[in-house]
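Hi V.,

Quick status before I head out on leave. The structure for the redesign project is tokenized and pasted below; the design run finished overnight.
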């Protein structure tokens, strides 16, 4: 899964007010957006924190059926490599800490001895592996095509290891296109590069590879989509190994000496026939090995797996009459965890849409009344829980993973209601609360993992023609949820890269979408996009960019963010200074400091901190500070740590030493005010006054 919540749950805060952005016709879509009314930064950060936590919980519920053990996909179907920061999916988590300047387009990570040993112990040889190994003796560059997630990476790595014994995985960053001229390819070394998501770049990248490696006796295998042709290098079509052979090989490693009963083997064979990717087989092996070790029945474990749950949901859909029960299932699949009245109301709204669409005549029809909620709850295996005195009840599935299963079955197996379902989701997201929008946006993102092109046409494009802030939020939430699927992350990056160059609504959506695991997986790409928008599009995106940067702020990303903001101050003119002031103000107002998201005062002194503080404390528009709380933040989030934090002392002394006449007057005024109210000691007041007078 992706990033953890920014902070642990804290005190309840008021719900954020809806930004008032009027609807507009398509012809008006590129008109200047109105910035939201300024809220106090602490209030804004507190409400954002609550929203971030709610988004994370929603994603965890939605992807509960796909949580796999660490390392499962390392062995077959898709490979991740261990580097200093942990496991990566297409460079997710590969955070570059340094100068905040453009980074290389890809990272090259060599497989460790442990990973090589694991691969060799569990390998199921294929004919395509044999063919590739034969070609490697004479060809430097080979393309391996085939369907997605069929074990191509494992086959390619095995062939490269057989050839030279050393192999590295080349990981593109975000939507960046690999540039082989940046690489130092070593003789005798094997490399694997995945271009499955960028077929249009295959010829350009492979041509550059030939030129870049002219003096190196390396070997490169490039993963490409099915049925691709190339005049530059031979293309081998991958033949995936049978699921039964993968299962047997991995089980012999994970449960050495264990023997399955004949009945268990039979039901496992049925399960294996339903799986489409080697990594799914490997995950099944892990579950079987754990079940055998615990002594639990294999049948019980299988009943909790996706394909069994899907079959059960399908049976329920076939049995249930009347329509309202099915509509309740659909509603809870999208909104589980929300208040009962909201879920029931949404179910009735969907039933009305279906009734209107499929009514064959215009005669009145009897309405199904007196449907009882307990029957609906039993039907979907849910429970209604009181939320407190006078707070009504919320409805949650007893098994949250069922939500995604029900959503998939309804979407894929009920095509006759799809148009009504699309209309209902768009209506629900547009009319509901921010809690509802989170659920709807994430549900649409889950649908995108089934059919991205269709969801883009029916949802994302519709929302990107709107000027309503809530529609932009829905699209961003959908992209955030789609990227939770590791197979979709790169595609989402490419989609956002195109949106950054689209109309203003698409730019607004991309800014919001980067405030998620998508941005954390490629922070330099996100910050580069923010720079372009802040410096070239006036002030219309400054608040959204500032909020997104606050989300991306982590211990590992802090130096990169500080460097980028400093660049805005130095090179961006007035708009750069304004954007940097707004973003830094939100970093200074972090509501909770944690090991993952420490307050800037907890970090080692950064060379740009003084510049960023001085910019936030002094940048004005029409005689008013752009960040009016900046001096209050300096007092309450910074000076109160003066005695115990070396970073605070060092940076504070420089802030009060380097100031012009206008800022000196303002600083003296605030020092006098703070001292009058007893906010700072007499000693600190005197010390800082002396620094100002000497400057």
């Amino acid at each position: 899964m992706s990033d953890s919540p920014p902070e642990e749950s804290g005190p309840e805060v008021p719900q954020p007010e809806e930004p008032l952005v009027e609807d507009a016709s398509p012809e008006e879509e590129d008109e200047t957006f109105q910035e939201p009314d300024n809220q106090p930064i602490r209030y804004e950060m507190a409400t954002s924190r609550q929203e971030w936590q709610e988004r994370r919980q929603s994603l965890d519920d939605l992807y509960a059926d796909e949580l796999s053990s660490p390392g499962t996909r390392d062995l077959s179907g898709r490979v991740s490599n261990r580097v200093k920061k942990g496991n990566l999916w297409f460079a997710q988590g590969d955070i570059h800490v340094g100068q905040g300047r453009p980074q290389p387009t890809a990272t090259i990570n060599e497989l460790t001895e442990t990973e090589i040993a694991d691969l060799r112990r569990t390998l199921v040889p294929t004919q395509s592996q044999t063919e590739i190994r034969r070609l490697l003796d004479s060809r430097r560059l080979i393309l391996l095509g085939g369907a997605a997630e069929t074990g191509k990476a494992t086959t390619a790595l095995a062939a490269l290891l057989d050839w030279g014994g050393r192999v590295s995985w080349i990981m593109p960053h975000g939507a960046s296109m690999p540039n082989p001229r940046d690489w130092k390819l070593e003789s005798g070394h094997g490399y694997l590069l995945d271009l499955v998501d960028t077929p249009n770049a295959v010829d350009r990248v492979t041509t550059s590879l030939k030129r870049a490696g002219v003096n190196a006796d390396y070997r490169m295998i490039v993963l490409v989509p099915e049925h691709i042709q190339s005049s530059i290098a031979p293309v081998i079509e991958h033949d995936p190994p049978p699921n039964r052979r993968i299962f047997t090989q991995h089980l012999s490693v994970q449960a050495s000496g264990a023997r399955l009963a004949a009945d268990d083997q039979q039901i496992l064979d049925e399960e294996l026939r339903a799986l489409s990717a080697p990594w799914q087989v490997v995950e099944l092996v892990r579950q079987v090995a754990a079940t055998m070790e615990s002594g639990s029945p294999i049948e019980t474990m299988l009943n909790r797996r996706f394909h069994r749950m899907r079959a059960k949901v399908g049976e329920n859909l076939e049995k249930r009459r009347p329509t309202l029960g099915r509509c309740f299932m659909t509603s809870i699949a999208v909104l589980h965890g929300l208040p009962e009245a909201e879920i029931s109301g949404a179910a009735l709204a969907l039933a009305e849409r279906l009734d209107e669409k499929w009514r064959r005549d215009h005669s009145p029809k009897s309405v199904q009344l007196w449907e009882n909620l307990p029957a609906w709850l039993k039907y979907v295996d849910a429970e209604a829980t009181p939320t407190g005195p006078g707070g009504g009840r919320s409805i949650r599935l007893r098994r949250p993973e069922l939500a995604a299963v029900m959503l998939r079955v309804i979407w894929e197996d009920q095509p006759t209601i799809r148009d009504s379902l699309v209309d209902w989701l768009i209506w629900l997201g547009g009319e509901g609360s921010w809690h509802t929008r989170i659920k709807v946006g994430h549900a649409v993102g889950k649908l995108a993992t089934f059919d991205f092109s269709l969801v883009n046409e029916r949802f994302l494009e519709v929302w990107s023609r709107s000027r309503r802030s809530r529609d932009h939020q829905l699209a961003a939430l959908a992209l955030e949820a789609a990227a939770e699927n590791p197979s979709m992350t790169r595609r989402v990056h490419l989609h956002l890269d195109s949106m950054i160059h689209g109309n203003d609504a698409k730019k607004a959506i991309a800014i919001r979408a980067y405030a998620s695991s998508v941005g954390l997986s490629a922070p330099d790409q996100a910050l580069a996009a923010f720079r372009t928008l802040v410096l070239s599009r006036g002030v219309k995106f400054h608040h959204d960019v500032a909020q997104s940067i606050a989300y991306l702020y982590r211990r590992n990303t802090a130096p990169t963010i500080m460097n980028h903001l400093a660049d805005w101050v130095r090179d961006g003119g007035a708009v750069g200074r304004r954007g940097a002031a707004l973003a830094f103000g939100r970093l200074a107002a972090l509501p909770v400091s944690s090991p993952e998201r420490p307050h800037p005062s907890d970090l080692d002194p950064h060379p740009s901190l003084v510049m960023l503080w001085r910019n936030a404390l002094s940048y004005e528009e029409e005689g008013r500070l752009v960040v009016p709380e900046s001096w209050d933040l300096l007092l309450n989030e910074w000076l109160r740590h003066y005695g115990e934090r070396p970073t605070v002392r060092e940076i504070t002394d420089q802030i009060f030493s380097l100031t012009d006449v206008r800022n000196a007057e303002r600083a003296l005024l605030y020092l006098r005010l703070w001292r009058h109210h007893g906010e700072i000691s007499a000693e600190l007041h005197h010390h800082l006054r002396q620094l100002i007078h000497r400057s």
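Above is the designed sequence. Residues 193 and 491 are 16 Å apart (CA to CA).

G. will cover questions while I'm gone.

Best,
W.
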